[in-house]
Specification:
The complex is a heterodimer of chains A (about 100) and B (about 170). Chain A has about 100 residues and is mainly alpha-helical. Chain A contains three helices and no strands. In chain B, helix 2 runs antiparallel to helix 3. Chain B is globular, with a radius of gyration of 20 Å. Chain B starts with 12 loop residues before the first helix and ends with a helix. The chains are: A mainly alpha (about 100), B mainly alpha (about 170).
Chain lengths: ~100, ~170
Amino acid sequence: MLVVNFLLLAAVLFCIGVYGVIARRNAVLVLMSIELILNSVNINLIAFSLMHGSVDGQVFALYVIAVAAAEVGVGLAMVLMIYRNRKSIALDELSEMSG
Amino acid sequence: MTALLLAAEDVNVAQNVAFGIIAFIMIVAALRVVTTNNIVHAALWLVVVLAGVAAQYILAAAEFVAVSQVLVYIGAVMVLFLFGIMLTRAQIGSEKGLNNKSWALGIPVALLLLGLMAYVIVDAYEDTVLPDRGPTPTEALSDQFLSIYFIPFIALSFVLLAAAIGAIVLARKD
């Protein structure tokens, strides 16, 4: 297999995730798009790990998986709190901090 | 552009065909995640993407990471997402207003980024063939975790603990 296959797949997933972050208004859907982005990065790490014959890339991928799990937990707790306070999780209505 | 041909010379054809099929399914599912009008469907399409990622890890000889992907993402993170969806929504079904008013702006941004990254990737790694390695022994991973990556490992444990406590504190009712 060519390393370009993996890298291009990861690039496509990354761009789809970026589109999701820009286009989506619902906070849960934005978090899902962030998961897409993190997974594309993991594919890159695994591909480079295979290419160089070292397991360091896999170690990094496991770190990314753990941090992503923590991020989703805190992110969804924040979304729940925002929903409880405002009855809405539309991101464009959260504009108090924009001055 | 031999890179884009699935069956290039001196590469494992079966592996390439499997990669292509899984990659196609993943891309379609990822597009559905960001375009569907039903949040629950988006979560379920995300499961397809995550399972595809796990399959790609197995193709890339990273079994332990693939198993962790299934356990952590499909097992835990998706349940969290479904909880999040059901706790923040009254009705389950398709709805309007999931996209921003200026959602179309995302398309040129994503396409531009994709073009740039594809150009750079193909330019840098055009004909680099991945070596045909067997499965990675899990001992090799644990050796790394418990030797040179030990302090980051402990730090990561604290991050997870802090995230769990923080999530509880944030989501409490009082």
